[in-house]
Amino acid sequence: MGLKTDYISEKQLEPNPGVLYIVGTPIGNLEDFSPRAKNLLSKVSIIACEDTRHSGQLFKKFEIKATLISFHKHNIHARIPKLLKKLAEGETLALVSDAGLPSVSDPGEELVAASRKVGHKVVCIPGPCAAMTALVSSGLPSQRFCFEGFLPSKPKDRKALLNSISNETRTTIIYESPHRLLKLLKELSLLCGEDRSIQVARELTKKYEEQIGPTIGEAMKYFGENKPKGEFTLVLGGAPKGKITPISDEQLIEEMQKLISSGVSTNHAAKKLGSKTGYSRNYLYSLMH
Fold this sequence. Notes:
The chain has helices spanning 35-41, 52-61, 76-88, 109-117, 130-136, 155-167, 181-192, 216-225, 249-261, 266-277, 281-287; strands spanning 20-23, 46-49, 67-70, 93-96, 122-125, 145-150, 171-176, 198-202, 210-212, 232-236. The protein is built from 11 helices and 10 strands.
C-alpha cells in the first residue's frame, strides 16, 4: 500500500499458541504460495479450511500434514465455539479459504471477530487476492474503490445494489460465476450504459489469464461469442461525478409517462430523461416494458 516497512531477515518463531493465523493461499499460480505461509501451515496443529478436499490437494503438493477441519458458511456457528476452545487450550490454529485471503468474500470474518472478542491475537499471513490483483492490473482508478464481492441472489436486493453501484463514482470490484456473467453484464449495460469502462478478469495468475474490456459493450460482445469459463472478477469504472441524480424506479417511470403523455415516443422520452438524470437510455426504456 506504499507504507514504509522494516523488513525482518530472520525466521520468525511462528506459530505461537493461542493465536489465530489468517493465511493467504494461491488463487491459481502455485508459485504465489509464500515461504512464510507454507512454513507456518506445516507447523500448526489445526487448519480450518473452507473445503478440506480442495485444500487437502494443495497441502499434499507441499507435504503439509496438519489436521484439517471444515469451516464454511453452513457450519460457522457450530465450528466457532470449538475453534475458540482449541485456541484457549493453546493449540496452534490457521484459517484458509479455497483460494486467496480468508474473510474477503469467503468465510472467516465471524471467526476473526469472535477470536478478538475473547482476547486471542489474530495474525494475517498475506497472500494473493483476486480483487486486488484485478484492480491494480485493470488500468482503472485505484486510489479509491469499493468491493462488493458476489451480488445478492434475491431479485429485489440485487436490483437495489446494482442501482447503487451504477451511481457509484468510485471504481467497483464484483465477483461473478461463469453461468451468471452475461446476465450481470446485461444488467450493468442497462444501468450504466455500454460505454462505461470495465475490465472482466479471469484465470488470474494462470497461464491463460485474460482481462476483457475496455467497455461493458465490448465485454458483452466478447462473452456472447466466447462461453464464460472460470471465476470472474469485474472491475467497473465509476460513474461520472455529478452526472447521475439518484431517483427511484417509480419516480423514473412517472417522469417517463409524463413525457410520453406529452406526445413523444418512448425512445425519445428515455433519451430526454437520460440526458437529465444520467441514467442510460436502455435502462429507462426497459422500465416501460
